[in-house]
Specification:
Layout (H helix, E strand, L loop, with lengths): L1 H7 L10 H7 L5 H13 L3 E3 L9 E3 L13
Helix pairs in contact: 2-3
Length: 74
Amino acid sequence: MQRQVAALLDVNGEGGVSPRQITEMLGRTDDGNVRHTLNRLRELGVAELVPGSSWPQPWRPTALYRKGTDGAGD
């Protein structure tokens, strides 16, 4: 499930995507599992919460994994 969730983090670009949106895109009903997966991806350095956001909490890939970046970190 980690790969499925990680693949959907870029759908809204820098704005991120909420756990609910990911759950719906996967055709699932278990928000809790998606949230657990997002937290695990954060621990692995793949996903992050969008800074300055409140609710719903949007997630996006870390700079290293964002599409259109070379991962070199300006």
